[in-house]
Write a structure and sequence with these properties.
Blueprint: H1 2-6, H2 15-27, H3 29-46, H4 48-61, H5 69-114, H6 118-123, H7 126-134, H8 141-144, H9 146-168, H10 170-217, H11 219-224, H12 228-289, H13 296-306
Helix pairs in contact: 3-5, 3-9, 4-5, 5-7, 7-10, 9-10, 10-12
Length: 307
């Protein structure tokens, strides 16, 4: 009970935060709408290149129609060009909008901090305030930048791809969904431990940066009181804490990467097994149509009769 009481509560998203997020999205609705349209065009063009080998194998090679090869190549080239142009447009429209919103947020936070009383500056390190002004504003990039639009586009693309996969092979798709569900559960469990580490890294970095800025800014006082050793020990302790945090996050991310590689390999093995079973089903009618071989006895009797 004491441990539960001393454990910090998880920060909840307040209604005011939702209201500010909606107001921020509404203020940039025109750019977000244009970016969403470009993203849809980009995703539709992205389906052309994966679908082109099927057309080449089924129509050009299977049906012996080489005249379709040039139109397929042109369609693939045009789709790739459209995908590149829309990707560049997304980076320019939504990227510039996100940077403008971040700049406005930094100006607002800086103006608010300057209006705070002097006692607040005496109790708060300057590095923490600098981190709040310069780094915390980066979080709104996911709202007014490519984050929200890519999330909606990814959901739509995944839905379309899921329908196509179910039409092609529902059994293999169901098995792959089960494997990906296990992968998603592992990712959710991992991020419940990695997300606090990322939050703590920002706090540690702000504290170390603030103490270092105060030390270098007041270097005359440090030298006057011969406090170089104590400042060096404080900075070393903070740097080691930051190193342990970064090492833990790197280990977790590497583990997630290895787990993702295993999942992709498992899906690839399923696809290979399914392809081999299809090849056997296709070659079995051909083997049945072959003429039976003559037995050695019939061959000998035929030779004797001819002699």
């Amino acid at each position: 009970m004491a441990d539960d009481a001393s454990r910090p509560k998880k920060a909840a998203i307040t209604p005011g935060a939702w209201q500010e997020a909606r107001a921020l999205i509404y203020a940039h609705r025109k750019r977000l709408s244009l970016g969403f349209v470009l993203l849809l065009v980009n995703r539709v063009a992205g389906f052309v290149l994966p679908a082109s080998p099927k057309w080449v194998i089924d129509r050009v090679i299977g049906q012996h129609r080489p005249e379709l090869l040039l139109p397929l190549a042109l369609a693939t080239g045009v789709a790739t060009l459209v995908q590149a142009v829309t990707g560049f447009g997304l980076s320019q429209i939504l990227g510039v909008a996100a940077q403008r919103a971040i700049t406005d947020m930094r100006r607002t936070v800086q103006a608010y901090v300057l209006r705070l009383p002097v006692s607040y500056f005496d109790s708060t390190k300057s590095g923490i305030l600098i981190s709040r002004i310069m780094s915390d504003a980066e979080g709104i990039r996911n709202l007014v930048g490519t984050g929200l639009v890519q999330l909606v586009g990814g959901v739509l693309t995944g839905a379309v791809a899921l329908v196509v996969l179910f039409v092609l092979n529902w059994r293999l798709t169901a098995i792959a969904i089960l494997i990906l569900a296990c992968f998603g559960a592992g990712m959710a469990l991992a991020f419940t431990r990695l997300r606090p580490l990322f939050r703590e890294r920002g706090k540690i970095n702000a504290e170390v940066t603030g103490r270092l800025a105060e030390t270098l800014g007041g270097i005359r006082i440090v030298k006057a009181y011969h406090a170089e050793r104590s400042e060096r020990l404080v900075f070393t302790r903070g740097a080691n804490t930051l190193f342990r945090n970064i090492a833990a996050t790197m280990t977790g991310i590497s583990g997630l990467g290895s787990f993702a590689t295993i999942i992709v390999g498992a899906i690839g093995i399923l696809m290979i097994l399914e392809g081999s079973s299809r090849c056997r089903s296709l070659t079995s009618p051909l083997s049945a149509r072959r003429s039976p071989r003559r037995s050695p006895g019939s061959t000998v009797s035929g030779r004797s009769a001819s002699s």
